[in-house]
């Protein structure tokens, strides 16, 4: 997935990103609110050596202190320091627990030791830091003091051991700890920033994962690339389509999309124009019946004698779409109980409809029979175009037997619903039976944001009827693509 595709996926799945962002921010705020404030107090010690005023001795003592100060920092958290502090301050914790609250560091090339203590109470943190510094100084000076070496005592002379040994190192406190004003943990702004970043990363990761696992087709370009078939039309999604399936002479985006489909279908097969066109899909619910009905209606509006045949003998919908009688129709003709003229119904203008008739127990055999071929040839002899609405390709074998009797097929694919594998299997099924696939129809496609207002977006009020300039109406000639409306195209 390239950057452009990733950004489009984010825009398409923005609710996922928003939900992840809200959850992450909520978790960060909850963690901040439930965390116990921790305060930090620090003190600083200076390590010096007891030497004379000689410059060489001073330099030597400085090097000595720097060499040993790193080792001193490791002594701060030992029991020799923490245990007396626990007793002195009467802390209700063990020396080991106190050691976990203490941090000591000695910056390189210095003779300084920084001691930091963390606690849930600011005053107690300062008391512990000062007590640790005092106890630590005593421990280091005691460890550095030279030990007495026992030896013989001469008469009249005082033993060297009578004077207490003096440590060559002294530690002085350069900065005492004071009670901190603000806690160092939690940090609301830092937690909030981490929540925002984490939410965005989580949302982006979920979007990428869903896009990787989602094999449905989102654009008509992707459908053309997959099938290598011409995309004859893109039908926009209309929430009112279930209540008003037929577009008739409207000037809506959906009506214009079917007119464009009609035009593309007419011009795509100029040299060998098919008379019997099968309309099918991979799976149910992709809009094949709606496409077949409105395509037939659009052809009839253009002055083309058209017959719509409902050959979906399992779930017929053409009769209910046009409000016609379904009991007598195709199956009645196939079993010889009536002729085509007896059951043919008119849907207005130059559109005739042959409904499915009663649902038979053996639809696959009926649709693949020689009688079905005779019916289609007879309809093609009396009409310029015959549109056949058939069953979906993958669930049942009805269309596989019917397709070779037609002269071309239209494959309807629903946007963001039909998977790539389903489309691939459907096209392979049509190829195996030798049917010429005329192209694809991308149905229920989302309307681009820039085209949501006005009939044609940038064309503004195209389709609105302007006031006539003269009182007398003027009759205009019908255009080849359908009756011309006032205002022109």
- Estimate the helix proportion, in percent: 40-55%
User: In sequence order, what are the helices and strands, one letter per element?
Assistant: HHEHHHEEHEHHEHEHEHHHEEHHEHEHE
Strand order of the largest sheet: 5-12-11-6-10-7-9-8
Oligomer: single chain
CATH topology grouping of the largest domain: Rossmann fold
Number of E-state strands: 12
- Runs in which pLDDT lies below 50 for 5 or more consecutive residues are 453-489
Q: What share of residues are in beta strands?
A: 15-25%
Summarize the structure.
It comes from Streptomyces caeni. The chain is of the alpha/beta class and 489 residues long.
Q: What does this protein look like?
A:
The chain is rod-shaped. The strands form 2 sheets. The chain has an 8-stranded mixed beta sheet with strand order 5-12-11-6-10-7-9-8, sandwiched between helices. The chain has 3 domains: 3-35 and 186-213, no CATH class; 39-146 and 167-175, Alpha-Beta Plaits (2-Layer Sandwich); 220-449, 3-Layer(aba) Sandwich (Rossmann fold), CATH 3.40.50. The chain is α/β, with parallel strands linked by helices. The model is unreliable at 453-489 (pLDDT under 50). The relative contact order is 0.11. The protein contains 17 helices and 12 strands.
Task: Write the topology of this structure.
Blueprint: H1 3-12, H2 14-34, E1 39-49, H3 55-73, H4 79-89, H5 95-100, E2 102-105, E3 112-119, H6 122-144, E4 169-175, H7 188-213, H8 220-227, E5 231-236, H9 253-268, E6 276-281, H10 288-301, E7 306-310, H11 318-322, H12 330-334, H13 340-343, E8 345-346, E9 351-354, H14 363-367, H15 370-382, E10 385-389, H16 398-402, E11 408-414, H17 420-432, E12 437-445
Parallel strand pairs: 5-12, 6-10, 6-11, 7-9, 7-10, 11-12
Antiparallel strand pairs: 1-3, 1-4, 2-3, 8-9
Helix pairs in contact: 2-7, 4-6, 9-10
């Amino acid at each position: 997935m390239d950057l452009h595709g990733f950004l489009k996926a984010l825009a398409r799945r923005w609710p996922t990103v928003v939900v992840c962002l809200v959850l992450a921010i909520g978790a960060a705020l909850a963690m901040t609110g439930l965390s116990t404030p921790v305060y930090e107090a620090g003190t600083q010690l200076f390590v010096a050596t007891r030497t004379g005023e000689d410059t060489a001795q001073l330099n030597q003592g400085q090097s000595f202190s720097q060499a040993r100060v790193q080792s001193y920092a490791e002594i701060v958290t030992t029991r020799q320091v923490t245990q007396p502090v626990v007793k002195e301050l009467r802390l209700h914790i063990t020396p080991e627990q106190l050691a976990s609250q203490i941090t000591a560091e000695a910056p390189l090339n210095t003779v300084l030791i920084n001691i930091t203590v963390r606690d849930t109470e600011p005053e107690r943190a300062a008391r512990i830091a000062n007590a640790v510094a005092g106890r630590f100084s005593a421990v280091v000076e005691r460890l550095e003091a030279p030990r007495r070496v026992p030896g013989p005592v001469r008469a009249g002379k005082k033993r060297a051991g009578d004077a207490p040994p003096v440590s060559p190192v002294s530690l002085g406190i350069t900065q005492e700890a004071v009670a901190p004003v603000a806690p160092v943990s939690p940090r609301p702004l830092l937690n909030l920033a981490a929540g925002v970043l984490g939410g965005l990363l989580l949302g982006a990761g979920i979007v990428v994962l869903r896009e990787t696992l989602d094999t449905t087709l989102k654009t008509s370009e992707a459908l053309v690339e997959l099938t290598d078939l011409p995309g004859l039309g893109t039908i926009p999604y209309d929430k009112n389509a279930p209540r008003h399936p037929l577009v008739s002479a409207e000037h809506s985006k959906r009506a214009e999309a079917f007119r464009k489909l009609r035009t593309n279908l007419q011009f795509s097969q100029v040299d060998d124009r098919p008379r019997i066109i099968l309309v099918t899909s991979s799976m149910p619910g992709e809009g094949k019946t709606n496409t077949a009905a409105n395509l037939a209606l659009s052809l009839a509006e253009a002055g083309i004698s058209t017959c719509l045949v409902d050959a979906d003998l399992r779930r017929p919908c053409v009769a209910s779409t046009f409000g016609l009688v379904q009991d007598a129709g195709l199956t009645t003709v196939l079993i010889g109980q009536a002729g085509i003229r007896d059951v043919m119904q008119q849907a207005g203008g130059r559109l005739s409809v042959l409904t499915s008739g009663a649902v038979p127990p053996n639809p696959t055999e009926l649709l693949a029979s020689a009688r079905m071929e005779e019916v289609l040839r007879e309809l093609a002899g009396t009409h310029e175009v015959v549109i056949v609405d058939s069953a979906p390709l993958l669930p049942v074998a009805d269309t596989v037997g019917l397709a070779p009797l037609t002269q071309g097929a239209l494959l309807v694919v629903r946007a963001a619903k039909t998977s790539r594998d389903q489309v691939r299997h459907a096209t392979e099924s049509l190829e195996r039976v030798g049917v010429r696939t005329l192209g694809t129809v991308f149905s229920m496609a989302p309307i681009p944001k820039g085209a949501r207002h006005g009939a044609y977006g940038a064309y503004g009020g195209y389709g609105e009827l302007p006031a006539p300039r003269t009182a007398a109406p003027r009759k205009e000639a019908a255009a080849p693509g359908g009756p011309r409306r006032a205002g022109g195209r």
